[in-house]
Write a sequence for this structure.
C-alpha cells in the first residue's frame, strides 16, 4: 500500500470511530490555501476539527507528536475559514487528534487550542 492509501485507510478508520461515538461527519479532507483538515465533524453542538495520524508502529514516537505548532497553526487558520464560510463563528469548537496504530485507535480530545496562536 502506498503512503496515500495508508493515510486514507487511517482516516476512514478514524471516521468510522467518530461516527460510532455519535459524531456527524461534515467534511473529509477539507482544503483551502491555508491547509487541510482531515475530518470536520459535529458532536451535539460542538464542531470538531480532527487531525488523523496513522503509523505502523512507535519507532518514531507517538503519531500525535507530528502535530507540531506549525501544523496546529495551519489547522487553526483553516478551521477559522470553515467557520466563516458556514456562518458558525459562534459555535463551540474542539481540536482533536486521532492516532491510528495497528490494533489501536487513540482519540485525544482537546489536543490543542488557539491559545498563543495568531
Amino acid at each position: 500500500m502506498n503512503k496515500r492509501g495508508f493515510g486514507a485507510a487511517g482516516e476512514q478508520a478514524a471516521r468510522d470511530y467518530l461516527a460510532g461515538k455519535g459524531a456527524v461527519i461534515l467534511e473529509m479532507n477539507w482544503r483551502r490555501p491555508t491547509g487541510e483538515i482531515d475530518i470536520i465533524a459535529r458532536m451535539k453542538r460542538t464542531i470538531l476539527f480532527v487531525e488523523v495520524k496513522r503509523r505502523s508502529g512507535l519507532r518514531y514516537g507517538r503519531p500525535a507528536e507530528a502535530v507540531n505548532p506549525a501544523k496546529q497553526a495551519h489547522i487553526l487558520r483553516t478551521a477559522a475559514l470553515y467557520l466563516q464560510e458556514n456562518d458558525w463563528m459562534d459555535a463551540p469548537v474542539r481540536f482533536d487528534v486521532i492516532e491510528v496504530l495497528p490494533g489501536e485507535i487513540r482519540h485525544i480530545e482537546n489536543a490543542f487550542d488557539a491559545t498563543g496562536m495568531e
In short: The radius of gyration is 14 Å. The chain is about 30% helix and 40% strand. The chain has a mean pLDDT of 91.
